[in-house]
Amino acid sequence: MSFPTESVVVPDVVLRIADGRRVTPVWVNELGGVTFSVAGDAFVKVFPPDHAALLTAEAVRLRWAASFTAVPRVLSTGPGWLHTAALPGRSAVDPHWAARPLEAARAIGSGLRLLHDALPVDRCPFDRPSWVPDDAPAADRLVVCQGDACAPNTLIGDDGRCSGHVDLGDLGVADRWADLAVATMSLAWNFGEAHEEELLDAYGVGPQHGRIAYYRERWAR
Questions:
Q1: Does 164 have pLDDT greater than 70?
Q2: Is 127 among the annotated ligand-binding positions?
Q3: Are the beta carbons of 84 and 62 closer than 8 angstroms?
Q4: Same domain membership, residue 109 and residue 70
Q5: Residue 5 confidence (pLDDT)
Q6: What are the distances in angstroms from CA 116 to CA 87, 110, 155?
């Protein structure tokens, strides 16, 4: 995902939802999806038809997770689009936090720990994240993973603490290192240097290099 660098056509469904309020494209992804901010208090994510099912899966997961932790509240959804309420805070890769990478790394780590502790494995109706194989090694600790724990998907409040998580379309049960391996890997992409120690320390765990390598390799496939 990245910030838009070119002009973006606003789809009719977004204009209808906005109903005259200010619309700003804020994220684009490699699938051709675009996320629009509506007046700063809601978002509409729009995907191409061949990836529309991903948003259906995300809406179901958001509704389930919202009972346990801070995730966007689903306001409405339809074929190829998802309308959610905004959460407080900025993305961990917002320029404000990109200029404070150590603080951001710690917030990502502590935020993942809060997420993993809050979501109940025994009540989760979803299988493993799509990229995690069913013959993965025995888990260090089985949790409900965010599924796409790259830095942009953690929100950070003005107090420097995680204020929620977004993009939960691949949420599912797996070893916590499925999230931690991806989260630590994404630090260098988004901040220009790795701050793995700070992230893992904030999570409350020491590095397990074998598990990190395993899940990073699966993520890259």
A1: yes
A2: no
A3: yes
A4: no
A5: 61
A6: 19, 10, 16
Q: Does residue 6 belong to any structural domain of this protein?
A: no
Provide the CATH number for the domain around residue 27.
Answer: 3.30.200.20
* Interval 38-88: pLDDT, tens: 999 999 999 999 999 999 999 999 999 999 999 999 999 999 999 999 999
Residue 136 contacts residue 211 (beta carbons within 8 Å): no
Among residues 61, 85, 109, which one ends one of the domains?
A: 85
CA dist., res. 209 & res. 187, Å (int): 16
End residue of a domain, out of 28, 50, 85: 85
Question: What is the pLDDT confidence band of residue 193, given thresholds at 50, 70 and 90?
Answer: confident
Judgement on whether residues 100 and 66 belong to the same structural domain of the protein: no
Q: From the candidates 19, 135, 140, 148, give the one annotated as an active-site residue.
A: 148
CA distance 62 to 128: 16
Half-sphere CA count of 145, side-chain side, radius 13 A: 27
Do 65 and 133 belong to one domain?
A: no
From the list 163, 164, 197, 167, the residue with the least C-alpha distance to 180 is: 197
pLDDT value at residue 4: 66
Phi, psi dihedrals of residue 7, rounded to the nearest 5° = -65, 145
Residue with tokens 């793995």: 196
Average pLDDT taken over every residue of the chain = 95
**How many C-beta atoms lie closer than 10 Å to residue 64's C-beta?**
18
In the residue annotation, 201 being an active-site residue is answered as no
State residue 119's pLDDT score: 98
Residue 153 labeled ligand binder: yes
User: Is the predicted pLDDT of residue 93 greater than 60, yes or no?
Assistant: yes
